[in-house]
Each structure stands twice: as C-alpha cells, then as structure tokens.
Amino acid sequence: MSSSGQVATFTLNRPAKRNVQNPLTWAWLSRTVNALPGTVRVLVVRGEGPSFSAGLDRAMFTPEGIEGIPTVLDLARADHDEASAEIAGYQNGLAVFARPGVVSVALVQGHAVGAGFQLSLACDIRIAAEDAQFSMAEVSLGLVPDLGGTKRLVELVGYSRAAEICLTARRVDAAEALRIGLVSTVVNAAELAATGERFVSRILEQPVAAVTEIKALLLAASGRSQAEQERAEREAQHRVLRALAGLDE
Questions:
Q1: Using alpha carbons only, what angle is made at residue 132 by residues 16 and 160, rounded to the nearest 5 degrees?
Q2: Beta strands 133-135; 185-187: pairing state
Q3: How confident is the model at residue 29 (pLDDT cuts 50, 70, 90)?
Q4: What dihedral do alpha carbons 118, 41, 35, 239 form, nearest 10°?
Q5: What does the pLDDT look like over 117-131, one tens digit per residue?
Q6: pTM over 0.70
Q7: Is residue 11 left, alpha or beta, with left meaning phi > 0 and alpha meaning psi from -120 to 50?
C-alpha cells in the first residue's frame, strides 16, 4: 500500500503468480484500509503485471497449505461455527471498501477471476482494460463465491445474468462487462493508469461531505424502500447544508 495525500494505492504484487490471493491478503487489506488516515479520500486497487488477480492461491488446496492459515481441507474438517467465523474474517477484508469516506477505484487488466473478480466488485468503480476478463470461477472448483460477491454482482447486473455468470464460470470480456454495467469504462491497457488518475481527480474535485453522504446513500439504497431512501436523502441533504453554512460544531 502506498499513500500520498488524499490518494492511497493498494497493489497486488505477485505478478509471477498472476496476483493470486489468500486469507493473509484479506487480513492485511482489512487492517490497512481501516488504518488509513482521514485525509485519504480515494483508494486505487490494482494488480502488478498482466493480470489484476487470477483468484485464490491454489496452495490452499495442498496438504502443506500456507503457513499460518487453514487449508481448504482444514475448513472442511472444522465445525460449522469455527468455519463460519474463519470465512467471516475473509469477508471482512473486502467489506472495508464500504467505508463511506473513501471511494475505491479498481483498475482491472487481464484476468479478474474468482477472488480477483470479487475484489473488483467490492470497489465502488471499475475501470477495465480492453484485455480484461472477469470470471466467477468458484463453481468449477466445487466452491461458492464467499467474499460477498454474489450480492454485489446481482445488484450490478440483475439476478438472471448474475446466475448465468456464476453457474457457468464463463469469462466476461471487457466489451460485455461495459455493456451489462459491470464496469464504468473500457480503455486501451496502456491508458488504464492515466484513465484511473483522471477519475480520481474528478472525485477529489468534489466536496468531501457530499461525496461521503452520496456514497453512503448509494450503498444502502438496495435495502431500503423508496420512502426510506427519500427520508435518508432528506437527512443527508440537511447535514451537508449545515456544513456548507458553517453551522456544524
């Protein structure tokens, strides 16, 4: 993680393994994002090398595993409460992106598979290179997506399309991802970083309080009725009006 003023950048940096992830990745991410100073307004998430992230580290499927974390077999052998608590810890690593005061932007090139796909889904905005390929591949391993990606995907593309993507494990290319609303824009791979910088600049140009309130409204919208959302909008508007008028203590 690198941080400069109002922007922090989280880089998956295992290019030789296509930036595979494991529970240590998610634990570190949770600790680090929660520890970001209040001055940070935007978090950029990217992968080093040709792929964003090819998903779960297959070492978790081996008897040797990864030092300090349970293997897949260990989870299978654990009782329900123990396994559930362990997986909840994994989910917390991506749940940190719901922090209202920080807008997250994923820059996706190459493979975004399984956990890689779910990491991108956890971000507020996804910008894809033309070579990006998204796949919820867990089903092909006999697993389910368990990092919160099922709900996020349904809310982005609808139930039927999400079901088709998750149940077939097929790859969604960048053009289709743009067409179905999975990503905000698609650019040439060479322009990915510069495009991300422009998006970040636009966000930073906006007032902090308004951005924070709007993100909070959008995150909660799907769980509210129209009337409840309108009430939340009224309350948020009054808070920002008071802030603009200098009436907050």
A1: 125
A2: unpaired
A3: very high
A4: -100
A5: 999 999 999 999 999
A6: yes
A7: beta
Quote the CA–CA distance of 128 and 235 in Å, as a whole number.
Answer: 35
β-strand partners of 11: 46
β pairing state of 125-129 and 185-187: parallel
Pairwise CA distance, residues 219 & 228, whole Å:
13
Question: What are the two backbone dihedrals, phi and then psi, of residue 124, each rounded to the nearest 5 degrees?
Answer: -70, -35
Map the chain to HEC letters. CEEECCEEEEEECCHHHCCCECHHHHHHHHHHHHCCCCCCCEEEEEECCCCCECCECHHHHCCCCCCCCCCHHHHHHCCHHHHHHHHHHHHHHHHHHHCCCCEEEEEECCEEECHHHHHHHHCCEEEEECCCEEECHHHHHCCCCCCCHHHHHHHHHCHHHHHHHHHHCCCEEHHHHHHCCCCCEEECHHHHHHHHHHHHHHHHCCCHHHHHHHHHHHHHHCCCCHHHHHHHHHHHHHHHHHHHCCCCC
Q: The tokens 């989870």 sit on which residue?
A: 75
Q: What is the pLDDT of residues 47-73, one digit of tens each?
A: 999 999 999 999 999 999 999 999 999
CA–CA dist 69, 202 (Å, integer): 40
